[in-house]
Amino acid sequence: MAEDAARPWPPPAGAYAEERGLFQLLQNMLEELLIHKPDDPIEFMINHLKQNNDDAPRICVLGPPASGKTTVAMWLCKHFNAIRVSQETLLFKEVLMQTEEAKAYKERNQKIPNALWANLIQERLSNVDCIKQGWILEGFPENQEQAWLLQSSGIFPRHVVMLYAPDTVLIERSGGKRLDPLTQEVFHTTFDWPSDPQVQQRLVKPEDLSEQEVSRKLLEYHRNFPEIFHIYQKVLKSINADQPSVDVLSQVLAFVQTRHRSAAPFTPRVLFFGPPGSGKSLQAALIAQKYDLVNICCGQLLKEAVADNTKLGELVKPYIDSGCPVPDNLVLKLLTERLSALDCLSNGWVLSGFPRDAEQGEQLQKAQINPNSFCFLSEGRGAAPGEEEIEPWPDKCSRWPNCGREKRVFFFNLPYEAIMERLSQRRTDPVTGERYHTTFRPAPTPEIQARLRQNPKDEEENIEKRLDIYYSNVKALQDFYQDAFYVNADQDPYVIFEFIESCIIKPLPCKKH
C-alpha cells in the first residue's frame, strides 16, 4: 500500500490537472475556507464555485493627490470591464447599509472612521458584479489600519499600483485639475484638455484643491505610505506618474496582467526543434543539468535500445543498421515507455529529435506526450534576453479574447552558411572519441590532428540532404506548435541558454493580444 501511495500520477492525470488549473483552484478554495471559516464548508464551497471568478482582477490603485489614480482606475475598468470602487462611488453612487452614516460624517466635515470605510468596501465588493467582473479599488487603503481591516475581511488585492511624482508636480497638477460631473473623468487645463466643446463647458473644479489643502494631504500621504508599502510590498509596483499618460497606462497594464508564482506542483516538459548543428543537444544538456530534467534525444534513445538488446531494440536494429528511418509506431512505443519512467514523471524532461513532422506531432499528442502549455501576454514570440516577461492571469482563457495557447516549444534558427561551417569542419578523434572543429576548436597537437576523421554525415552533400528534410517539414511543425518560442541560435551558447531558461522557469501566463 505504501508503494502505491508513493507512486506518481500517470502522465494524463498530471497534464489534465496542470491544463485545467486544478492545483490553483484547490489553493484558492482552501484560502477562502480559512478566511471565512464557514459552519458548513461543503455548502460554502458549492456557492463559491457557482458565483466566484478566481480570474477576475482585484487591483488597488494608490498614490498621492493628483497622481492620476482616477484616470488609471477608470481606464482599467474599461479595459477589464471591472467595477470601480472609490470614495465618490461609495458615498454618492451606491445604496449600502451604512452609506447614510458615512454621509453624515462628510456633511459635518468630520473624518469618516476607518472601520466604517472598511465596512462599506466589504459590502460593495461582496456584490455579484464585483465577484464576477472583478474590482478596481481607487485610493484605498489610505493607511495601515484600513489595510488591516480589509485583510481581516478577506479582501486581498492581487496587484497594488502605487503612483508617485514629485510634490511640486502634484501641486501644479492640482491647480489645473477639472472634473466631468457626468462621466467622472478627470482632465487638466494644461496637460489633458478635452477636444469636445460640450465636455469643456460642463467641467468643474473639484473641491478642496487649494495649494494649502493639497500640501496637507501630501504630508498625510507621505506619513502613511511606508506602512502601506510594507503590507503590500509583495504585490506592489511603484510607477512614475510624471510622464505621458500613455506610458503610465502601458506600465500599469503590464504589471496588473502579471501573475504571481503559484505554489502548485509543476513538471517541465520541453520540446526542442532545429536544423542539424543548431545547438539543440548542447542547450538540452545545459537545461537538463541545471534543473535536473531528463535529457532525451530520440536518436540516442534508439541506439541505446539496440545496445541494450531490448525487445523494441531488436525491432529497431535492422532499420538502424541499414540507415533507414525507424517506423513511427516503434519510435512512439519507445518514447512512451521512456517518458512514463519514474524519473521523467518526477523531474520532467527535455526532448529533441522527435517529432520530425506535423504528423508525428499529432501522434505524440494522441499518446498524451505534450509539452507544458500556457498563455502568454506580451506581444511577439517571447522576451529577448534581459527583458522582463509579462506573466498574467490564470488559465481560464475564456476571459481573454483571442488568447493564444503557448507551449514550451523552442525552434532554433540558424543561417545556412553557419550550419555548413559548424558541421562540415567537425572532426572526431577515433582513439579518444573527442570531437574537434578545425576553426573553433582545433586539435591541441599535430599528432591528434593527423588522426582526426570526418563523420560521413558531416560531408556537405549529406548535410544538404538532412537540411532539405528538415526545411521541408519545419513550416508544418511551426503551424502545429503555434506561438512557440523562436531562438536565434547564431550567438553565444550561454546567451541562448539564458533566454531558454527565462522562458522555462517563469510562471505560466495568459495573453490578451
Query: End-to-end span in angstroms?
Result: 49 Å
Q: What is the overall pLDDT average?
A: 80
Describe the global form: elongated
**Spatial strand sequence of the major β-sheet:** 2-3-1-4-7
Class of secondary structure makeup:
alpha/beta
Number of helices: 24
Spans of at least 5 consecutive residues with low confidence: 1-7, 373-406, 507-513
Summed up, the domain count is 2
CATH architecture descriptor of the largest domain: 3-Layer(aba) Sandwich
The counted number of beta strands is 16
CATH top level assignment of the largest domain: Alpha Beta
Largest sheet: 5 strands, parallel
**Helical residue percent?**
40-55%
CA gyration radius, whole angstroms: 30 Å
Per the CATH scheme, the topology name of the largest domain is: Rossmann fold
Instruction: Estimate the strand proportion.
Output: 5-15%
CATH superfamily of the largest domain: P-loop containing nucleotide triphosphate hydrolases
Description:
It contains 24 helices and 16 strands. A hairpin with a 6-residue loop joins β5 (177-179) and β6. The protein has helices spanning 2-6, 11-20, 22-36, 41-51, 69-80, 87-92, 99-107, 114-125, 128-133, 144-152, 167-175, 197-202, 211-232, 245-256, 280-291, 298-307, 311-322, 328-339, 342-347, 358-366, 416-424, 446-451, 460-480, 493-505; strands at residues 58-62, 83-85, 135-138, 159-164, 177-179, 186-188, 236-240, 269-273, 294-297, 349-352, 373-375, 405-407, 409-413, 426-428, 435-437, 485-488. By secondary structure, it is of the alpha/beta class. The strands form 5 sheets. It has a 5-stranded parallel beta sheet with strand order 2-3-1-4-7, sandwiched between helices. A 5-stranded parallel beta sheet has the order 9-10-8-13-16. It has a two-stranded antiparallel sheet with strand order 5-6. It starts with a helix and ends in an 8-residue tail after the last helix. α16 packs across α17 (311-322). The chain is elongated and about 95 Å long. The longest helix is centred in the middle third of the chain and has 22 residues, at 211-232. Mean pLDDT is 80; it is low at 1-7, 373-406 and 507-513. The protein has 2 domains: 57-256, P-loop containing nucleotide triphosphate hydrolases (Rossmann fold), CATH 3.40.50.300; 269-293 and 348-505, P-loop containing nucleotide triphosphate hydrolases (Rossmann fold), CATH 3.40.50.
